[in-house]
Specification:
single chain; 181 residues; alpha/beta; Nucleotidyltransferase, domain 5
């Protein structure tokens, strides 16, 4: 499933978001990961391109969501296809490695979703055009303002993906009906 709906206006929440734990991933050779509980930022990490590091993050997300009695939703960034076959394969490979780690850690496939880079950026920043390096620095600045944390560029983008996903109707629709978790 791909997330389509923009988050609600800044400062608002949906009651259902308080039942969700969101682990957001900015995949790549070096990745970023961020954790949200009940729509609130918890932590973020820069993640080296190593299977054990990805699995540790996935397992940490599963265990802490269980401790917090939240339903875990994994959200992985995707990109529109531009370029050659090698580019497309590389983009899919990075996201696929994360998806596999979440599945191995016990996250049901129906709770592993994707969000297009252009959708979350538009939802967080509005309709703006920037170069790649400008987007990364803008994400770092935004995290300093919103979360009062100095994060690396990959962790910052993952944090904003998590913020966006925490209030998307599609994510909230993945939560079990009624009750906790």
């Amino acid at each position: 499933m791909t997330l389509l709906s923009p988050p609600k206006a800044k400062g608002t929440t949906k009651l259902e978001s308080h039942r969700a734990a969101v682990i957001a991933i900015d995949p790549g050779h070096d990745s970023g990961a961020a954790m949200f509980y009940g729509g609130m930022f918890s932590d973020a990490w820069e993640v080296a391109d190593h299977a054990a590091a990805r699995y540790d993050i996935a397992r940490h997300a599963v265990l802490t969501a269980e401790e917090e009695e939240k339903t875990l939703i994994a959200v992985i960034e995707t990109w529109p296809y531009f370029g050659g076959v090698r580019t497309a394969l590389g983009l899919g490979e990075a996201a696929g490695r994360w998806k596999e780690c979440f599945e191995l850690a016990g996250v049901p496939k129906r709770r592993i979703v994707t969000v297009n880079v252009n959708d979350w950026r538009k939802g967080i920043f509005g309709p703006r055009k920037h170069l790649k390096v400008e987007w990364k620095s803008k994400a770092v600045q935004e995290c300093k303002l919103r979360f009062r944390r100095a994060l690396g560029s990959n962790a910052a983008e993952a944090s904003l993906i998590g913020l966006y996903a925490s209030y998307c109707d599609e994510v909230l629709g993945l939560l079990p009906k009624g009750g906790q978790g």
